[in-house]
Write a sequence for this structure.
């Protein structure tokens, strides 16, 4: 099982130990993961999540698992959290909005230029 936070997506990072003599040796930085159970009021069941402490603060800030999952678009959620959101939306009878495809930065600026040109031409 990989060491990945289900909320933030934090995972193992790689870096270097640097000694006093400036020797570099590889090392790994592990995320501070905790296995916690969260209750979904909408679904009426518990979910066991592997969270980093930052992910725990995020869920607390949003007001719990249900509120966090409903507030975020599916494209910003990990697959496990997206499945929870889909189950909540199915239970509530809300149709899931299709995820938008990201627009490349160059295309975005080109569209903006076309809009400005169209407005000034009028």
């Amino acid at each position: 099982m990989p060491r990945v936070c289900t909320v933030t997506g934090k995972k193992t990072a790689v870096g270097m130990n640097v000694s006093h003599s400036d020797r570099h040796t590889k090392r790994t930085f592990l995320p501070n993961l905790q296995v916690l159970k969260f209750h979904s009021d909408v679904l009426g069941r518990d979910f066991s999540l592997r969270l980093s402490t930052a992910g725990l603060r995020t869920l607390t800030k949003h007001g719990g698992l249900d509120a966090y999952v409903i507030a975020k678009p599916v494209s910003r959620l990990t697959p496990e959290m997206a499945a929870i959101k889909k189950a909540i939306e199915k239970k509530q009878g809300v149709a899931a909005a299709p995820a938008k495809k990201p627009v490349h930065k160059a295309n975005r600026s080109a569209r903006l230029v076309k809009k400005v040109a169209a407005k000034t031409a009028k």
Observations:
- The two ends are 59 Å apart (CA to CA).
